[in-house]
Amino acid sequence: MSRIRLIAIAASVLLTLGLIAWLFDSLQRLYWGLAAISPTLASVLLVLLVIALIGAIVVLIYYLFLFSRPTRSTKSVIPPLPQEKSAAAEVSLRAVQQQVAQIQDEVVRQVLLQRSQAIEQALSQQDFKIVVFGTGSAGKTSLVNAVMGEIVGTVGAPMGTTTLAATYRLELQGFNRDILLVDTPGILETGVAGTERQQLARQLATDADLLLFVVDNDLRQSEYQVLQMLTEIGKRLLVLFNKADLYPAAEQQQILAQLDRRLQGMVLPEDLIAIAANPRSIQLADGTIVQSQPDILPLLQRMATVLRTEGENLIADNILLQSQRLGEEARRLIDAERQEQAEKIVDRFQWIGAGVVAATPLPVVDLLATAAINAQMVVELGRIYGCEMNLDRGKELAISLAKTLVGVGVVRGAIEIFSIALQTNVATFLVGRAVQGVTAAYLTRIAGKSFIEYFRRNQDWGDGGMTAIVQEQFRLNRRDEFVKTFLQEAMGRIVKPLAQENE
Ligand SMILES: Nc1nc2c(ncn2[C@@H]2O[C@H](COP(=O)(O)OP(=O)(O)OP(=O)(O)O)[C@@H](O)[C@H]2O)c(=O)[nH]1
Ligand SMILES: [Mg+2]
C-alpha cells in the first residue's frame, strides 16, 4: 500500500473519531438541558438515541458482512465467449463435420474429423493461444524467455514440443484464461528443411488467437507477404521490432517510422512496439560486464490491454476462422474426389458412343452432336454430385447441350481438327466414318466436362450460361498436345476396329 494512501486513511479515521466525540458531547448537553426542564422528554430522547444507535450498528454489520464475503476465484468465472460469435462458430462447425463425413478417402476423412474435433474442443476450452512468429534469428525464443522470465520468474521446460515448436503455459493478472505461449521455428529460411519448418510455423500462426510477429529491422519483402496473408485472413497481430538496443535512439525512430509506413492499413500504430528481448551486455568503465535486462514492458502492457479488451472476441473469431478454413479444405478435397470419379465416367462414355456413331454414319452434324451425348452419362455425373435425376431429365439436358455444341461451332471445329489429322493416316474409304466416330468421342468429352462444371456449381451454368462453359471446355481440350494423345487412343479404340471390320 502506498504511503499517501496510509496517511489518507489515518486522517479520515481521526476525523471520524473527532466527529463522533463532538456528536456525543452535543447530545449529552442536550439531554441534561432537557432533563432540567422535563425528565420525561429527556427519557424519550434517550430511547430514540438508543434505537438510532442500534440501527446504525445493524447497518454497519450488514455492510461489513457484505464486503468481507470471500470474492469468488476469478479463475472459476471464465466469461462465456460472445454468444452470437460462438453460435456462428458452432453452426459452421456442424456444417463442416457434415462435409467431412462425405469424404470417401478414409485416411483423409479421419484427419479432418480430428481437426474438427480439436476446434470443437477449443470452443469449450479456456486457453488463449499466443504464437510468436517471424524470421529466423529475429529473437523469438529470446522473447518467449523474456516474457516467461518477467511474468513467471523462470522459463522452465516447455509443456510440449511439436517438432521444434515449444509451448509454455502462463497466467496474466487480470485475464481470466490461461495463456499458451508458443515459440515457433523461423520462417523464410532457404532449403528443404526450411520449407517444412515454414509450413509448420505458418500452420501454428493461423491457429493463434493472437500473434506476436517479431522482426529485427525494416520488413523484408517475404516478411511483408506473410504479414499481408495473415492480416487478410483476419489474424490479430502485434508487430515487435526486436533488438532495438542495437540502434541509437534516432535510428530506432527511423526504423519504427519506416515499419509504420509499410504496415499502414494492416497494423495499428499502437500495435507496433520496439523491444529488446535479450539486449547486449554492457561493459562498464572499470571493465566489468553487465548483462542488460530485457526491455519488453511496453509489449506486456499492450498485450494486457488487448487481452482484456479483445480477448474473448479474438478466441471466438479464431474458432470461426478455423472452422471456415477446415470447411474450405473439406470442400476442396470432396471436389477433387468427385472430379476424379466424374472423369472416369466421361472417359467410359466417350468411347461407348463413338463406336456406335462410327458404325452408323450420320450425315448431319446436328445429329452427330445429339447422338454423341449420352443421357445416361448426365444421370451418372449428377449422381456423383449428389443430384439425383431421371433419364428423361438427363435427355433434356443432353439435347440442350448438343444444340449449344452445334450453335457455338464446336461440332464444326472438332470435325475440322480430326478431318485434317485423320486424312493423312487413315485409308480414304474409312476417313468419313473415322472422323465421325472420333469427333463423337471428342464431343462426348466436351459435353461431359461441361456437365461436370454444371454439377460442381450446384446445377448452375454460371453468369455466361451454358455457352461460356462449353466454349471454355473446347478451348481447354483443343490444345495440340491433348488432341495428339486423344487421337492416339482414338486410333486404337475406334479406327482400328473399323478397319478390321472392313478387311
Ligand atoms: N542485441 C540483441 N540481440 C538479441 C535480442 N534478442 C535476441 N538477440 C540475439 O539474436 C540471436 C537470435 O535469437 P533467438 O532468440 O535464438 O532467435 P529466434 O528467432 O528464436 O531464432 P530461430 O529459432 O533460429 O528462428 C541470439 O544471438 C540472441 O542473443 C535483443 O533484443 N538484442
Ligand atoms: Mg528460436
Write the layout of secondary structure elements.
Elements: H1 3-37, H2 39-68, H3 83-101, H4 106-124, E1 128-134, H5 140-151, E2 160-162, E3 165-170, E4 179-183, H6 192-207, E5 210-215, H7 221-232, E6 237-241, H8 249-262, E7 272-274, E8 282-283, E9 289-290, H9 297-359, H10 365-372, H11 375-384, H12 391-407, H13 410-423, H14 428-456, H15 465-477, H16 480-501
Parallel strand pairs: 1-4, 1-5, 5-6, 6-7
Antiparallel strand pairs: 2-3, 3-4, 8-9
Helix pairs in contact: 1-2, 3-4, 3-9, 4-9, 9-11, 9-14, 9-16, 10-12, 10-14, 11-12, 11-14, 13-14, 14-15, 14-16
The structure holds guanosine-5'-triphosphate and magnesium ion.
Magnesium ion (MG) binds next to α5.
Structure explained in plain terms:
- The protein is α/β, with parallel strands linked by helices and 503 residues long.
- The chain folds into 3 domains: 13-71, no CATH class; 83-329, 3-Layer(aba) Sandwich (Rossmann fold); 334-501, no CATH class.
- Helix content is 66%, strand content 8%.
- It has helices spanning 3-37, 39-68, 83-101, 106-124, 140-151, 192-207, 221-232, 249-262, 297-359, 365-372, 375-384, 391-407, 410-423, 428-456, 465-477, 480-501; strands at residues 128-134, 160-162, 165-170, 179-183, 210-215, 237-241, 272-274, 282-283, 289-290.
- The protein has a 7-stranded mixed sheet with strand order 2-3-4-1-5-6-7, with helices on both faces. A two-stranded antiparallel sheet has the order 8-9.
- The structure holds guanosine-5'-triphosphate and magnesium ion (MG).
- Guanosine-5'-triphosphate (GTP) is lined by residues 136-142, 185-186, 242-243, 245-246, 276-280.
